[in-house]
Automatic annotation (TrEMBL):
Annotated InterPro entries: Cu-oxidase-like_N, Cu-oxidase_2nd, Cu-oxidase_C, Cu-oxidase_fam, Cu_oxidase_CS, Cu_oxidase_Cu_BS, Cupredoxin, CuRO_3_AAO
Quaternary organization: Dimer.
Recorded superkingdom: Eukaryota
Location of the protein in the cell: Secreted
Catalytic activity: 4 L-ascorbate + O2 = 4 monodehydro-L-ascorbate radical + 2 H2O
Domain Plastocyanin-like: 11-122, 137-295, 393-522
Family: Belongs to the multicopper oxidase family.
CDD domains the UniProt entry points to: CuRO_3_AAO (cd13893)
Protein name: L-ascorbate oxidase
Length: 546
């Protein structure tokens, strides 16, 4: 195994990814940032210098479990103090599983300012994938706003509340296209900027490509389609999928998929790769890339209209694709047959002090100033609420199909403490928002673990009946899973990774508005904490001296 060393400087730069110029947070000047390429078992070392003038930073390695290194998870307020302007922080962790992963900022809403990239972990030499392809390509999907992250965050915390709204553009590998004639007169918008020419994926006729597709959106659920070409889904979140063919792929923020695409169509032309918003009524134009058959010129526009994707509100279509994702035969890891503890999470939109918030079981999460990992390990228990949040909600009396009679909720930074090595079931239950006949899609992401996806269903989860239909045969393992509108999703995991781990909705504004929880397990087994994660809140006295 090798050590892969990276040296990154984080800075703001003027960028025009969709032709409209704004400030973006970059790594060594770029967004998306550099791809981390490694082999299973390698150690990745990333020296992050915060070159932002007035803003903290923290970077999370999404999908990497951080076994033995919980302090490198990069989650501000949970596993570390933020990296201050001018400071350097060293992340060091082992990539123990092959697959497609993501890294991104985990401080406030900073992720949406552009700090993200791919982590590709390849198999050790001599080991083969259970499928064949000629070449590999990374595709990062994102949504993009012209207002700054600060303006968005202030709006969400304001009275009256100002919603971030739908994105202005969809980006494929950091490239999109905004119609500059709609930009205000003070805006800098250049339709001829080379930064906003579409991404070109050049293919050789007859070859098969493995597209490693990642969604890092701040809000949007997406549908990705390559005009006229089928895709075979073979991997998700680092686990092999029993292959199945789709015309288009639904992908939620925080998920990764590998799909195989064969360049087997008329090679005399190019084709559109199209990205469309689903689940929310789209107001954002289709994101486009060019699927370029060699040797056609890459800038030659396809002669056809780009695909518009499935109906945005066809929840059944998306639920159906979720249900088809099973572990590949021969690779399924059987889950424990039963759980030691079941926690049910009712997902609701709420009002607290005239602000709109999100809550689970009527508790809206707030991050403490001292990271939990430090607090728990050093016994500074006064640093957060010692009242454990609720395990369930009153499911016999709550109407998930109606706007709540009482939308009030409480705020808390209390956490769930799990028995080490126990098996835990989490049942996510969706509900109506504060708007009539409306329920949203929430992609939930668990840090520090993969979980088994036991099932999805419509309506109210029945704790007597529904577990009888759990898939214990070939459930896929993932780290991010959608909760569909008015439905439920059940997952199971082993609390066998000593540390403190966030579990939250991967929609940037939803987590910012309280949609998350934190689990602790086996913190007494965590090794000596590096002092570099300290230096804020009650951990200040423990931090390093300047
Ligand atoms: Cu990719 Cu806590 O997030
Ligand atoms: Cu959400």
């Amino acid at each position: 195994a090798r050590v892969r060393h990276h040296r990154w400087e984080i800075t703001y730069q003027f960028k025009s990814p969709d032709c409209f110029q704004k400030l973006a947070v970059t790594i060594n000047g770029g967004t998306p940032g550099p791809t981390i390429d490694a082999q299973q078992g390698d150690t990745v070392v990333v020296e992050v210098k915060n070159g932002l003038l007035t803003e903290n930073v923290a970077i999370h390695w999404h999908g990497i479990r951080q076994i033995g290194t919980p302090w490198s998870d990069g989650t501000e307020g949970v596993t570390q103090c933020p990296i201050l302007p001018g400071e350097t922080f060293i992340y060091k962790f082992v990539v123990d599983r092959p697959g497609t992963y993501i890294y991104h900022a985990h401080y406030g809403m900073q992720r949406s300012a552009g700090l993200h990239g791919s982590i590709i972990v390849s198999l050790p030499g001599g080991v083969k994938e259970p499928f064949e392809y000629d070449e590999d390509r990374n595709i990062i999907l994102n949504d993009w706003w012209h207002r700054s992250t600060y303006e968005q965050a202030v709006g969400l915390s304001s009275i009256p509340f100002v919603w971030v709204g739908e994105p202005q553009s969809l980006l494929i590998n950091g490239r999109g296209r905004f119609n500059c004639s709609q930009a205000g007169t003070t805006a800098v918008c250049n339709p001829n900027s080379p930064q906003c020419s579409p991404y070109v994926l050049t293919v050789v006729p007859g070859k098969t490509y493995r597209l490693r597709i990642t969604s890092i959106t701040s809000l949007s659920a997406l549908n990705f389609e390559i005009e006229g070409h089928n895709m075979t889904i073979v991997e998700t979140d680092g686990h092999y999928v029993e292959p199945f063919v789709v015309k288009n792929l639904n992908i939620y923020s925080g998920e990764t998929y590998s799909v195989l695409v064969k360049a087997d169509r008329d090679p005399s032309r190019n084709y559109w790769a199209a990205l469309n918003v689903v689940s929310r009524r789209p107001t954002t134009p289709t994101g486009l890339a060019v699927f370029n058959y060699y040797p056609n010129h890459p800038s030659r526009s396809p002669p056809t209209a780009p695909p518009t994707g499935p109906l945005w509100n066809d929840t059944d279509y998306r639920l159906d694709q979720s249900l088809r994702i099973r572990a590949r035969r021969g690779y399924a890891v059987p889950p424990p047959r039963t759980a030691d503890r079941v926690i049910t999470f009712l997902n609701t939109q709420n009002r607290i002090n005239n602000r709109t918030r999100w809550a689970v079981n009527n508790v809206s999460f707030t991050l403490p100033h001292t990271p939990y990992l430090v607090t728990l390990k050093q016994g500074l228990l006064h640093a957060f609420s010692q009242e454990p949040p609720p395990e369930t909600y009153d499911y016999q009396n709550y109407d998930i199909y109606a706007v709540a009679r009482n939308p009030n909720a409480t705020s808390s930074d209390g956490i769930y403490r799990l028995e080490f090595d126990s098996t835990v079931d989490l049942v996510l239950q969706n509900a109506n928002t504060m708007n009539p006949n409306n329920s949203e899609t929430h992609p939930w992401h668990l840090h520090g673990h993969d979980f088994w996806v036991l099932g999805y269903g419509k309506g109210v989860f029945d704790p007597e009946k529904d577990p009888k239909n759990y898939n214990l045969m070939d459930p896929i393992m993932k780290n991010t899973v959608p909760l569909h509108p008015f439905g439920w999703t059940a997952i199971r995991f082993r609390a066998d990774n000593p540390g403190v781990w966030a579990f939250h909705c991967h929609i940037e504004s939803h987590f910012f508005m309280g949609m998350g929880v934190v689990f602790e397990e086996g913190v007494d087994r965590v090794g000596r904490l590096p002092t570099s994660i300290m230096g804020c809140g009650h951990a200040k006295v423990l931090g390093r001296k300047p």
